[in-house]
Amino acid sequence: MEPIVAAIAKKEKKGGAPDLDDVDANVLKEFAGNYDYVPGRVKETASFAKALHAFARSLGEKYYSESMGKKIHLFALDLDALLLRGEHLRLQAERFYTELEKGFLQKKKVSLDKKAMERFKQELDQFDKELESLYQQAVGLTKEIRAEFERKERL
Questions:
Q1: 66-122 pLDDT, tens per residue?
Q2: Residue 73 lies in a domain
Q3: What does the alpha-carbon distance between residue 44 and residue 86 come to, in Å, rounded to a whole number?
Q4: pTM of the predicted model, to two decimals?
Q5: Which of 1, 9, 32, 117 is deepest in the core (most CB within 10 A)?
Q6: Rounded Cα–Cα distance for residues 139 and 72 (Å)
Q7: 74 lies in some domain
């Protein structure tokens, strides 16, 4: 069965629609070469943001002092807002990707709006900085929680 599938794939490459692996490779080359951007960056960053969000939610399910509970709640709200922005960035990235992909599938030269792409990359850089800041805040919160627990256990 394998030789038949390979033969069909070769036939499609020669005269039919472009091979999807080639399209994806061309889109990645276009992003990296002309726009200094790698599409996987948004997914990796969003994945880390979601992990941090899950961590914040797990903290919120435990019992702490009222002041610590408020800090955790505000931290989780900041992460909620950041996750919304991250999803918006992911949507923008998908739109850019789709535009290039469509051009390659239609065998047309597509040029993205360079100003829009630069704004997007700046927003992504800012998102990364805010995510790093929230990560540092999470580390700080864990230290504060530990200190609070140790104080209570000594009583």
A1: 899 899 999 999 999 999 999 999 999 999 999 999 988 888 888 899 999 999 999
A2: yes
A3: 11
A4: 0.77
A5: 117
A6: 12
A7: yes
Domain assignment of residue 88, given as a range: 18-154
Residue 124 to residue 146: CA distance in whole angstroms: 33
**Hey, what amino acid is at 32?**
A
Please check whether residue 8 lies inside any domain of the structure.
no
The tokens describing 137, both together, are: 């805040």
CB within 8 A of 100, min separation 6: which ones?
Answer: 26, 27, 30, 31, 110, 112
What is the rounded distance in angstroms from the CA atom of residue 86 to the CA atom of residue 122?
Answer: 13
Contact 86, 45 (CB under 8 A): yes
Nearest to 17 by CA among 106, 122, 147: 106
- Which token pair is 148? 């609070």
